[in-house]
Amino acid sequence: MTDTHILNIGFDDTDSIKGMCTTFLAYKIVDLLKKQETEFLDFPKLIRFNPNIPWKTRGNGAVSLRIRTKNPSKIKSQIKNLVEKYSDIKNGANPGLVFYESEEIPEQFTRFSKLALWQLINRNQAKKFAAKNNIEFFYQGNGQGLVGAISAIGYDFEDHTLELLSYRKNSKFGKERKLSATSVKTMQEKTLPYTFNSFDDKKDRVLITPHGPDPIFYGVRGENVDSLLYATKILKTSEKLAGHMIFKSNQGTGDHLKNEFNITNIRPYASGKITGIISDEPKIVKGGHVFFSVISDGHELQCAVYKPTEMSSIALSLIKGDKVCIGGGIRKASKNHPRILNLEFLDVINLEKNLIESNPICKKCDKKMKSKGKNQGYQCIKCGKKSVNKVILEIPRKIKKRLYIPSVSAHRHLSRPLQRIGRINKESKFDESTLWFCVYEK
Is residue 1 very low, low, confident or very high in pLDDT (cuts 50, 70, 90)? Predict the structure, then answer.
């Protein structure tokens, strides 16, 4: 293309708990642009930001597109119309849309995006950022979607995954999804380790279908395009789907937990990790949840491990003095509860010896002696042998120095699954000729 412009497009918060989906809007925008003289420069980007934001609808995901075009003004107008058409404003969506014409993305975009990964950023900060950096922007409602829209453009991938999202026909929105669980299980077996978090074998549960009324039928997450396309051939459903699109994403990277907590940045709704020493014995409460505290740099932080994570027994096995690194989100303090870190991973760095005092063992009878009374020593009731002092016993630990993560069913979109530990995916070659976008036959 001659006399062309590189246009970066970001949008967010177009959905509500009652319907629509920001990725579906992206699918509709790409469908429109592909019918024009538009060159796509990369996969659409689906970026998940801080999962602890209280007003998020589902996965707190925003989308960005990067294209080359001869007529940016026309495309901006068309996209604005689509945002208005496919945003569920009547049910609480607050869409934000930004345009940035440039081949290079300035560092300030990246810094803003990194903060959105773990902090709470309000809409006024986003509006000021847009005005300061001469960004074209449009919003409806309160404009909260501008935060994700800017951040999606600025996101700098250190690691990434891909997700193939398949979309339903309009007539099927809100209706039950019928997908063969057996086919999902087979797909996972045949595509591992190049797909992840598709099926929970322990609970016999499908993990790729949403449960709400949104337009997505299923989403398969993985490492490369070929594995995702192969997965779709194995999955079986009687429903006629509308099409699919592959997104480049930060899902499965654990990016939101790279922030190191300290006394100055442990704020409500923040995400991150902290290294410290267990400062009290873990306690289990009604419902099976476990609470304990850690001390780091002289400050104590209470932590919670909830039963659905299936990590309660791990947490209960900790003792005072153990050194751990824990990651998660900060729950706001309430009238009855202090500020708490809701745990998303537990990395045991060092284990203390679990020592207890015990009555001595009779060497002849191999039986535990009984106390003769206060300060009177101990005696074997079988042979009469005596001993003066208690003995110190070391109780074997039930946990090891290693990383523990929740059950796959309790993973968040950003959670790094075990199979991705140590894996860094830096290159997914974008090729316009591949089936990264497809509208199926009517």
Answer: low
Q: Report the chain's C-alpha Rg in angstroms.
A: 27
CA distance 278 to 271: 20
Tokens matching residue 253: 């990277």
Interatomic CA distance for residues 380 and 361, integer angstroms: 8
Q: Are 70 and 5 in contact (CB under 8 A)?
A: yes
Cβ–Cβ under 8 Å, residues 248 and 221 = no
Instruction: Please report how the helices 145-154 and 107-118 are oriented relative to each other, as an axis angle in degrees rounded to 10.
Output: 120
d(C-alpha 226, C-alpha 185), whole Å: 18
The pLDDT value given to residue 277: 98
What's the rounded Cα separation, in Å, for the pair 145 and 93? 8
- Nearest Cα to Cα of residue 282 among 249, 326, 251, 242: 326
Report the C-alpha gap between 287 and 289 in whole angstroms: 6
Q: What phi-psi label fits residue 170: left (phi over 0), alpha (psi between -120 and 50 degrees) or beta?
A: alpha
Burial tier of 385 (Cβ tally within 10 Å: 0-12, 13-18, 19+): middle
Q: Are strands 340-350 and 299-305 parallel, antiparallel or unpaired?
A: parallel
How far apart CA 212 and CA 192 sit, in angstroms, is 27
CATH tag, 161-249: 3.90.600.20
Q: Where are the domains of the chain?
A: 5-156, 161-249, 255-351+397-413, 354-395
Residue 70 CB coordination number (10 Å): 15
Residue of higher predicted confidence among 211 and 9:
9
| CATH 3.90.700.10 for domain 255-351+397-413 | no
Is CATH 3.30.70.2200 what the domain over 5-156 is classified as, yes or no?
Answer: yes
* Closest alpha carbon to 30 in 40, 18, 20: 40
Do residues 241 and 166 make contact, with C-beta atoms less than 8 angstroms apart?
Answer: yes
Q: What is the pLDDT of residues 286-311, one digit of tens each?
A: 999 999 999 999 999 999 999 999 99
Tokens of 425: 């995916």
Q: 276: helix, coil or strand?
A: strand
Give the chain's largest Cα–Cα span: 102
Q: What is the rounded end-to-end Cα distance, in angstroms, of the chain?
A: 32
Whether residue 241 is predicted with pLDDT greater than 90 in this model: the reply is yes
In contact, 124 and 141? CB cutoff 8 Å: no
